[in-house]
Write a structure and sequence with these properties.
This protein is α/β, with parallel strands linked by helices. Helices cover 39% and strands 14% of the residues. The chain has a 3-stranded parallel sheet, with no helix packed on it.
């Protein structure tokens, strides 16, 4: 990465705690699959779930239940979508 690109990247980089402050009710969030799962962001968003409404979380083949979904067991604040409807999504669907 060139120096200017590295500098631009560093200017935009924020913590997961700061990032979830930007999430608003009604937002659609996409989690990457497998190794791209946003562990820290998921933990921080789970702490805020009761402040938000009508969130839609979308992903592909979740490898584990997102903490933000587990933090809202009655699904009053979040809807989870899985484009693959894998094992984790089926488990949460039946829960």
């Amino acid at each position: 990465m060139t120096d200017i690109l590295q500098w631009q990247y560093s200017q935009k980089l924020i913590s997961a705690k700061e990032a979830v402050k930007k999430v608003k009710s009604g937002d659609h969030i996409f989690y990457g699959e497998f190794a791209l799962f946003p562990e820290t962001l998921d933990e921080e968003l789970a702490k805020r779930i009761n402040e938000l409404d009508d969130l839609v979380l979308t992903g592909v083949s979740y490898t584990k239940p997102p903490k933000v979904v587990l933090a809202d067991p009655e699904r009053k604040h979040i809807t989870m979508r899985d484009y693959h409807f894998g094992k984790v999504a089926r488990y949460l669907h039946d829960d």
